[in-house]
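A quick aside before the break. I want you to see a complete sequence-to-structure record at least once, exactly as it would be stored in a machine-readable document. Don't worry about memorizing anything.
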Amino acid sequence: MPVDLAIEAVAGALADAGLTARDVDGLLVNSSQGVRPDRLGVALARQGGLGDLRLLEHVEIKGATAVAMIQRAVLAIRAGLASTVVCVFADAPLRAGGTSGSTYAHSGGSDGARGLERASGVLGSVPTYALLASRYFAVSGGDPEDLCAVAVSTRAWALGNPDAVVRKPLDAEGYFASRMISTPLRVLDCARPVNGAVALVVSGEATPGPAPRIHVRGMGQAHPMRRRRAPGESWFGGGRAAVDGALAMAGLTRADLDVVELYDPFSVVTLLLLEEYGLVEPGQAGKVVRSGATAPGGDLPVNTGGGQLSGFYLQGMTPLAEAVVQLRGTGGARQVPGASTALVGGIGGRVDHHACLILDLEPSR
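That is the input. The structure line, written in tokens, reads:
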């Protein structure tokens, strides 16, 4: 059950910080989309044995929520509304007699445009992002070789991550041998859902735990209002403002970033975010990834735990948790040497929501 996973994650995070439940006066929760009886909610405060709280909310902007929860916690602490806030996500889509695909296929509802899509066989996110991938190819001049390069790069990182779901080496031959799900997306272009949870503690003061503390240097959000009809672009644009705002708040530039951790439910999302966030020139993401720049040993390390394609899919907590690992220097075989500054990016919906963090080992520069 998600609640059991969440309780375990919260206990682990508090122990890591050298705190107890008595030190917590804020709790922010998020759960995967879809109305399910076991969906995680604010009842976790009682179920997890927390005491009286000053802040308790269920935050929801889809895949951007994990980053947004950290932002919400920071703002609440700065405003004096809380002092120590736990942010947690948990989900359990894998169950006996079913598949994660069947679970996610029911998200989005059956009314309006989504109902029309469902009646036409567009179930869940895979066919939707397949349309996005086709549009990306048309706009950028890219091709399936670019998707392959992303999958191979993230798998190379996953080989050094003991928590990754898939740790078998992958090359182009293996990628193109994988079955097609919704053209042009193959099974290896899609995230790997797991039953699990991640919790992080945000505190306004130094915690007594022995691990290095990570500082939130910059934050940003952007929510382009897409109309999904001509003549406007229905997929791209608008996300760069979130990164620009976070970097400006941090007083840093893109050149200062040591690692980049992006929400990557599908391989094409990595390509479009690299361009949209101004990390590579428009239309050049495929070329950059194929060059090895984003893979181990490259000069633009991206999704260093294997991302959601080969690591694990726990919504926006996946890139956030990996950023903490890298900045703490506990990445083991996948550790980026000297990593001290990270960009974490989360998206929600059909690239409708963007939330970004700049995380740093140093409180100020």
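Two observations worth writing down. Residues 146 and 286 are 5 Å apart (CA to CA). Residues 2-91 form a domain with the Peroxisomal Thiolase; Chain A, domain 1 fold (CATH 3.40.47.10). We'll return to this after the break.
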